[in-house]
Structure formats: C-alpha cells, structure tokens
Amino acid sequence: MRYLLILLLCMPLLGMAQQKGPGYVCPPCGQCDTIVYHQPGICPHCGMTLVLRDTASVPQQQPYSICFYLYNGTEVLDFAGPLEVFSYAGFKIFTVGKTKTPVTVQGILKVNPDYSIQDAPAADIFAIFGGDDDVAAGDPEVISWIKSRDATTKGYFSVCTGAFVLGRAGLLDSLTVTTFHNSIKSLQKAVPSAKVLSNVRYVDNGRIITTAGISAGIDGALHLVAKLRGEAEAMRIARHMEYDKYVPGQGLVVKQ
Amino acid sequence: MRYLLILLLCMPLLGMAQQKGPGYVCPPCGQCDTIVYHQPGICPHCGMTLVLRDTASVPQQQPYSICFYLYNGTEVLDFAGPLEVFSYAGFKIFTVGKTKTPVTVQGILKVNPDYSIQDAPAADIFAIFGGDDDVAAGDPEVISWIKSRDATTKGYFSVCTGAFVLGRAGLLDSLTVTTFHNSIKSLQKAVPSAKVLSNVRYVDNGRIITTAGISAGIDGALHLVAKLRGEAEAMRIARHMEYDKYVPGQGLVVKQ
Question: Is A106 close to B83, i.e. CB distance below 8 A?
C-alpha cells in the first residue's frame, strides 16, 4: 500500500514523462521496471538510481529466462538465494516440478510449480538445486526431459548437490566443478571424468556453473549476474540484499 | 534414494542400538534425528557428530515451535534464510497465511500456507518478514490476530521491513530495533518511541529480535539459535550451510 501510494502520487509525473519521453527508468528489479520518470533521481520503490531509458545500456537489459526445477526435498536456501538475486537482476524466473502437484521443499514449505515437465517453456538458463537430489537425479523421466531441452538451453546453474542432477544428465563430463562440502568425493565417484573441487564458492565453465553448498548459491548467482550484466549490477544487488560480505571473484572461472 | 540405501544398510546396527540403548543420536537437524546408532561417529545423512542419547545436553534439544507468517509480496530470502537455519536447529516450523489461499512471494513463488489465521496453532516464536509489508501491517485483521496470540508467544523475530508489522502491533514501542537500510527513517516515523538503528545486522531486545534487510535474517536466525542452543550449534549450522562468512556477535544485544 505504501508503494501504491507513492505510485499514485507520482502519476502526474509519469504521465508527463510518457508524453514527452525519452525519460528515466529504473533498471529492472523485477518489480518496478515499467515506470518512466521525467527527471533523473532515485526509484521511490527500490532505491535504485534511475537511468536514461534510451541509453546504450538498455539493450543489455533484455530479460534472461531461467527455469528453477524443484522437487520434493529441495533445500530451501539453495534456490531462494539465487531466486532473490536473479529477480533483482530482472530475470524472468519460473518454477517447474515433475508434475504440477505441490512440491515440499526442506520438508516444510509447500510450493506450487508454475509448470510441469509436460508443459514447461524453454528457458535461457536451467537451474537445479541440492537436497534430496536423487529424487531428480534418480528419475529417468526428469533426466530425459533435461537432456531434451539441451539444444535450447544456453546455460546451466547448479547449487550444492544439484550438481548430481547435471552429472546424471551427462553435462559435467570432463569439466571442473564443485558441490556441497560433504559430497565432494561422491560427486567425483559419480562423474569420474570431472575434476571436483572443494573450498571454492563456484566454478564457471562458461556454459555450466556449479556452486558449493546451500548459501554459496547466492555467490554463484551474483557471479552470473556480474558476467551477464556487469560487476556493478552484481554489487548493487548484493548491497540491496545487505549481503555485504559478498566478495567478487571467490570462485574459479575456467578458461575456455 | 542414496540416504534410503544408507539407512537400509544401517538397519541391523539401528536394531541393535534400539535393543541395547542408550546409543548415539544425531543432534536434531530436522531430517535424521530419530535414528539411534550403537557407537559414536558421524551421521551418514548430514555429517553431524553423533552425541550420546542420554547426555545432559538432550533436554536442551526440545523443539521450539515457530510460526512463519507469509503474505503476498513477502521477500523470499527474508524467510528462506531463517527457515534453513531453524530447520537445522530442529525447530518445528509452520507457515501461516491470512487464508489458506496460495501466497505469492517475491512475485514468483506460489506457496501453500499450512494454516490460516483461523486455525493456526500457538507457537513459541512468531516470525514475520519484509517485502510488501503493508499487505500485513495495513490489515487490521492480521494485526488483531497477532495481538491476540501475544499471551502465548514467547518471542518475536522480524526480518527487514517485517519490523513494520511488529510496530503496527505495538510490539516495538520504546525498544531499540532495526530494519531494511532504505526503511530506517520510515520505521522511525512509524514508531516514534523506538530507537531505530542502521548498520547493525540485528538487535535483540530479549523477547523481540529485529534484523536488518533480506540476507541479515540469516545472521539474526543464527544469533537466535546461539542464544537458545549455544554458539557451537549456531557455528555448526553456519558451516553446514557454507555460510562461512558468518561472524558471531555482529548484532546488538540490548541489556534488559
């Protein structure tokens, strides 16, 4: 209601801006990027610095789409951290379950997936998370579905033991990767041709990013935003989230 | 399935332990605390060090119950970080919405609340989170419901602008508190008798803990676990979550 009030108060301003253009816009934060202001300043909704609508930077702001695959037993922070980061980067996020039946994450939270594997649209990035990962990694239908999307998937992002799912889909062969600290040896056994690292927040192989356990997904997501939108954007999001302990570059970027 | 296999392999061992007792148990992590082993070691499920079932520490492990109130527009990391922490501390967490209609958090994730305000059971701790907080703070029915539970609520925990909800319920009067960095002034205006601090991860007033924005909820939750279960337990959870940047004591504990 507070934001609604601010928006109502700003309506005349918006009307002027829309008539006179080009105006100033809030960089996409997933909530207020459709509003146009007639002068520079700060977005009253999220505190971001407004940018010129028609600057050269605008083409960079095309939203990436990202599919969050959720299964019963998904670790809640594994996906919630990246969801927070990617939503402020303006990514178009949707959730997919094997079916549309509610998924219970962390044994507690009941989530209704947006899509099932029968009707999920393509996405630029496929994201998979840890927890009871064998629910997904051990399900031939799910693995087959992930493989079937490979031609249209530009990138993969795994958090924690979500790496086992990518491994089962054959996506980690011969790559340098990481996973949850208690699962380093078992991932190495599951994907013998991979080099599985410990003590690294994430490993970026270009098309495939794997992160360490649970909270490391936040760092991996910020790294992906930095890669796609620039380090300043990642730092802005980290500050907004008060993730002030974020240190850029705490992962490994494998030279292609 | 991997864990199921481990459990099946351990079944004879468990049987022996249950006959001979007292045995060793995994400290509660919300997933594996019902298993009894006949010798010390490491929990094969979560990697925790097993403890004697009948040691003096066991009475400390009685679960706290915690009510997570969710509304449309709740910030996802605000509640997911604490949910992760509290679940590994063995707290009994349930979610409540105004009704049982699915709640959309972060504009993306559709969550089915366990209870509505009509049928939610009492809880030791009431937790409230930021986002479009006026959806809850501006709803007299919700505020009235929170007030009606006060006699049975031992503690309150707010993250980010969730503090506005506690403020509207009259719970922050004359306290030292904190909130999201962009909302310090507006919370001060909303609760003139409170002292609203910036640049602190959390403020603990004894019965009421308020945290700074979004990711600071993780630190506040770890602080609450440290308070109720000891710093070693909070550190164990932080390590498990690979939240290795956790620094105990980055909040303010107000002397009572």
Answer: yes
B23 and B80 fall within a common domain: no
Kindly state whether residue A230 falls inside one of the protein's structural domains. Answer: yes
Tens of pLDDT, residues B139-181: 999 999 999 999 999 999 999 999 999 999 999 999 999 999 9
Residue B107 to residue A30, Cβ atoms within 8 A: yes
Name the β-bridge partners of B127: B68, B157
Q: For A128-167, how does the pLDDT look when each residue is reduced to its tens digit (9 = 90+)? A: 999 999 999 999 999 999 999 999 999 999 999 999 999 9
Which residue ranges of chain A lie beneath pLDDT 70?
1-61, 256
Q: Are B50 and B25 in contact (CB under 8 A)?
A: yes
C-beta separation of B104 from B70 below 8 A: no
From the CA of B143, how many Å to the nearest CA of chain A? 15
Q: What is the DSSP letter of A59?
A: G
**Interface predicted TM-score (ipTM) of this complex, two decimals:** 0.79
Please check whether residue B163 is in contact with residue B146, taking contact to mean a CB–CB distance below 8 angstroms.
no
Q: Can you give the residue range of the structural domain that contains A126?
A: 65-253
Over residues A4-23, the pLDDT tens digits come to 444 444 444 333 333 344 66
Same domain (yes/no): B103, B78: yes
Tell me how long chain A is: 256
Residues 98..117 of A with a Cβ closer than 8 Å to B: which? 102, 106-112, 114
Q: How far is it, in rounded angstroms, from Cα B36 to Cα A209? A: 38
Angle at A229 between CA A4 and CA A123, to 5 degrees: 80
Q: Do both B209 and B236 map to the same domain?
A: yes
Residue keyed to tokens 């992906």 = A224
Whose CA is closest to B79, among B203, B228, B202, B215?
A: B215
Alpha carbons within 13 angstroms on the beta-carbon side of residue B143 total 18
Lowest mean pLDDT among A14-23, A54-63, B79-88, B219-228: A14-23
